[in-house]
Amino acid sequence: MIAFSFITPPCLLPHSLVCGQIIYTGPTQPGQRSEDLENLAIELFAGKRVLIVEDEYFLADETRRKLEKAGATVIGPVAGVAAALDLVENEELDAAILDVHLEGDLVFPVADELERRNIPFVFATAFDPSVIPGRFTGFALCEKPAELGKIAEALFGQRAGEYH
What we know:
alpha/beta, Rossmann fold, two-stranded antiparallel ribbon, globular, phosphoprotein
């Protein structure tokens, strides 16, 4: 398999396909119903404790509201690496949604700690995915704004489990 650092945006594929071990979750595909994705989110997020690491207030709040509606307990949201690491250390987590760029920092120390603890996570970014280091191959990359059903499937679904 090729390393992530060689993957460029034209290589990104729909969620169910893999390109160099990176799972890409993009916009809804034609024929895919948003109601189905919403039901999937409710099924997969119900009862889960999910950390949100996002420095854009409105995106963080929207994600929080959607997760709570799906039955998840939201940890955070937090906007910085230090605050996120504190929550990873002190909270029981089932998963995390990570913005890549946080207040001038990159989220990778948080991702490293989540991986060390075997907590599933997805990256959510509107930036070029080539900034994500090769050590994170196999983790889902969600285009912002991402649909909650696709994030749920990436974190907890059968296909995502094959790669985490």
